[in-house]
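note to self: dont lose this again. the chain is below, predicted strucutre after it. 375 aa total, dont forget to put it in the shared folder this time
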Amino acid sequence: MKATDDRGAVKLRYVDDRQPGYTRRRVRNGFAYYKPNGERIRDADEIARINALAIPPAYTDVWICADPRGHLQATGRDARGRKQYRYHPLWRETRDANKYARMAAFARALPRIRAHVARDLALPGMPRDKIVATIVRLLDTTFARVGNAEYARENASYGLTTLRKRHVTIRSGQVRLRFTGKSGIEHDVTVDDPRVSRIVRRCAELHGHELFQYVDEHGERHTVGSSDVNDYLRDAGGAEFTAKDYRTWAGSVQALALLRRTPYRGVTHARKQIVETVRTVADMLRNTPAVCRRCYIHPAVLDAFESGTLDTLEVLRTPRGLRVDEAAFAALLALAARRAPGHDAIEFAALRKISGRSSRRSVRRANCTTCSTRP
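---
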């Protein structure tokens, strides 16, 4: 896998820490770095590159990529034994830009995905599509991470696909999930959905420690992984969507809903309100504000509020399959596409259609929905 910057001058290489890399050893004034053959690195530029990664001194089992173009630059384990990663800045920028660019397509596909999920939840038995649809419904309502088998195994941190039966309590049509997520963040989420509750109860009755399992036509049990969820989303949505898109969508929608309720009183006041909004959304997504702002709130949301143009946003109807504040975000994406230099007219027309925008100047504000999944 490769990534390039806008000039095409930098190409990244996809690597992993199973490949030979540099190691470090503590010396009097810091660390010395060594090649896979044991030779000490003395090149000043290479040492400067490694130091710029800012690998915490307390990390153990440190692996450093020997290639400055590697998408993954370093890994190590923190004081609690959790594996941590340092990525190339261009990799993060490319990944985030692509993620935000997908939001317009995701806005169009979300009603279709939700309809697909509703049909699969009604399937008889415990087939794969029914169980994966249950996880997708939970992604849509809890904003939790999808989960990663490696994180569960190495860090004892969980997401939806890696939950164990001990993490769930089912009572009166409600599902309560309590688990330790990424970065050691404790999650306590209650979902009021009788159909999901019934399916999760049946999952909990199956043998094994894993919560989400399906039963094939031969009666064999199988666990569900993040790749199953992403495959399902691609099939249901008709594009390369992943579970992570739900968190970006949720963060952007919630930020917009909060800011649309906030009066605009100039740039200075707007920036203070943005800080508060990011903090609130970060709490909802269980991230730090810095990560939330960089990775989970579409820049168009914050830019529109800071510039005072959010009041031009028109939401004349809410399409079937979208909530009111989601329709507002779709409208904002359409507005941003129209204003962008060289915007795609077809893309703008598609967004305009689903958001119900017209040339009317009336503004209808969406009510901010309170997230029911905050700790």
